[in-house]
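Recall that a protein's primary structure is simply its ordered list of amino acids. Everything else, from secondary elements to tertiary packing, is in principle encoded there. The following example makes that idea concrete.
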Amino acid sequence: MRFCQPHWQRLKAAIEEKGMMHLAHGSGQKLAASIERQLTGTDSAADFDPLANATWAVYSQFLKNVGLAGMDGDVCPLCDVDEKGPSTSQNWIDGSTDDQLATARHLGLMPPPN
């Protein structure tokens, strides 16, 4: 399971449009170190990565919907949900990134809404 390039770009664009791209770790090494801190309970608000978290949220929901069969192959979870109905992937992108914005605000990493 992995995002196709168009859906990955749309997810990244949604994070950017919500003003959170500066919170994304930007490299696999930084993200891996952050995940390790989260797993060991030594993380801080600086470990929050809205792009990674939105990605995990989409993967998680997809697996809830289709089960472990979703792990087989290189299926894009958002392409799969688009087969079920129009604009479904955009709903998932909006929902997962809106959740990340709410969390970033809760952590004091983003200003409250106007």
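DSSP finds five helices and no strands in the chain. Residues 5-106 form one domain.
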